[in-house]
């Protein structure tokens, strides 16, 4: 009976400090080095890769590579007369990022933005837009990251 009591006590102590409990307390949207997304209306697959960052510091230059592929999985460029634009806001505080930077086409289907700056650490709702010549949104995706 006493052994059983100690067993329960031990179980209780371990339960309070178990890895499972820690996991629940962690943010659910941690920064990921790479995310797969999709521009639905254009049927373009997107893979984002952070080559530097993400870091929530005004002094850090984040670098985001965007890889575009078609339905066959082949690298493909943006549709004619469109541009790729990054944007991000902090939902919990209602303010935008510091610098959305500019995408440069490196090669077919490869677009690099190496001047992305966030003001502070926390939750960031990142967005990628495809814009036409009149800066109207042709397609867009959003994803939340915490860093
Ligand atoms: Cu903020």
Description:
The protein is mostly beta strands and 147 residues long. The protein has a single domain, classed as Periplasmic metal-binding protein Tp34-type (Immunoglobulin-like), CATH 2.60.40. It is 15% helix and 43% strand. It is built from 2 helices and 9 strands, in the order ααβββββββββ. It has helices spanning 2-16, 19-25; strands spanning 34-39, 44-52, 62-69, 83-90, 95-96, 104-107, 110-116, 123-131, 137-146. β6 (104-107) and β7 form a beta hairpin. 18% of the residues are buried. Mean pLDDT is 87; it is low at 7-28. It binds copper (II) ion. Residues 90, 93, 95, 120, 122 line the site of copper (II) ion.
Order of helices and strands: HHEEEEEEEEE
Nearest-integer average pLDDT: 87
CATH fold-type name: Immunoglobulin-like
Number of helices: 2
Structural class call reads mainly beta
Bound molecules: copper (II) ion
Overall 3D form: globular
The level 1 CATH classification is Mainly Beta
Share of residues in helices:
10-25%
Question: What characteristics describe this protein?
Answer:
single chain, 147 residues, mainly beta, Immunoglobulin-like, five-stranded antiparallel sheet, four-stranded antiparallel sheet, 2 helices, globular, binds copper (II) ion
Topology, element by element:
Layout lengths: L1 H15 L2 H7 L8 E6 L4 E9 L9 E8 L13 E8 L4 E2 L7 E4 L2 E7 L6 E9 L5 E10 L1
Antiparallel strand pairs: 1-2, 2-3, 3-7, 4-5, 4-8, 6-7, 8-9
Bound molecules: copper (II) ion (CU).
